[in-house]
């Protein structure tokens, strides 16, 4: 499963890795009231995917698309010829259920393996109890994309296995108006809303007058997913969407964990705005220091200490990468790659990624993958990418590039580079800024000090620069960020 609208290159990477034989797509999808084509990207990708023998196409927008004889099949025609009965295929609990690709610290995405029995067990349990499901009366809405793990676990598998009534929405939250979500909640009597902090911050920016246009009294529980929610957004969500009466379940989990791991339980846990609170029953969580020693209070690294039903079973085709990525830093523990702190009351507060994977609106994007896309452009000699703090998206992608000789640096080239990344990887990876610089801050061993680039992007006071081969380069980069192409100056 991949996101609709992925670039051909991104489709090729995932199809090659999974050795896929069939692709199911659509002619297009609707976005802001207009059809957005999907099939052409698949057509371009399949030219480089010899394992693919068939492409099944759902006719969604009645768009004019090319259908290749013998390879491409309309879904509605296949269904018209299909038998009316399809007996369920018995599966062993450890047989593969799906592969879902997520970014790693190398440019190659990781194919996360989830199996049938354990995954279904955990998403069924967590969905029922974290959202306090009452299937006879509830109308649940998770606003995530189905191509994201949240959509897998809490739009498809968790709700369906519990017999829930769900809202599925195709479109953006601001079309035809910025009150689109609140209109849907009022119209269908939604009782639980599960959305992302990025969306909540966007709603805050649009103003409380938008939800005030609608009756949101059907809501009885709110959820947050994708990144830790800042206390200000939590309070706004509580007041303007929940009417100060709905518990908020701020959930921490990952593509790799399959299901929710840390979350308050409604009606049981005393809430703290911005905290995911405690591990769910049966989940072993410890925060450790650099040496892997558990700490009772303060900040450190989030680890999981015992198996859980929906844990990833591996990285497809890369068992050593699986061990190195998740199990090598703290032997005997799963290292989540996130920082966390424990307060004086024992509550867990998530602090975000500690590696080179950025979290942009809940999408995990590798810095290396974006750097590779920038360097792929004929004008770029070298690139470094960091995740800068962003009030709306949590992190924003900022790229620093050195141009090849003879290339003119201007705003048009900056826009071209941003678009190039979106074409190579997908729209979610489009950098918010590309800064053209004369050089990059490197140590004497040639390592790029991304910490300094992050400080420049965030406007922070710079830390120690004594290990740089040329400390003067930092001021040149700062000047480019303030006054160079793409700065708006």
Tell me what you see in this structure.
There is one protein chain. This protein has three domains: 8-81; 96-353, Rossmann fold, CATH 3.40.50.12780; 357-483, GMP Synthetase, Chain A, domain 3. α4 packs across α5 and α7 (197-206) crosses α8 (231-241). The strands form seven sheets. Strands 9-8-10-11-12 form a five-stranded parallel beta sheet, with helices on both faces. A four-stranded antiparallel beta sheet has the order 13-14-16-17, with no helix packed on it. The protein has helices at 8-18, 39-46, 75-81, 116-130, 149-161, 180-188, 197-206, 231-241, 319-326, 367-375, 411-424, 450-458, 473-483; strands at 22-26, 28-31, 34-37, 54-58, 72-74, 96-102, 110-115, 140-142, 166-167, 192-195, 221-224, 248-250, 285-288, 298-304, 314-315, 334-342, 348-353, 357-360, 363-366, 380-390, 394-403, 433-436. It is globular, with a radius of gyration of 23 Å. With 489 residues, it is α/β, with parallel strands linked by helices.
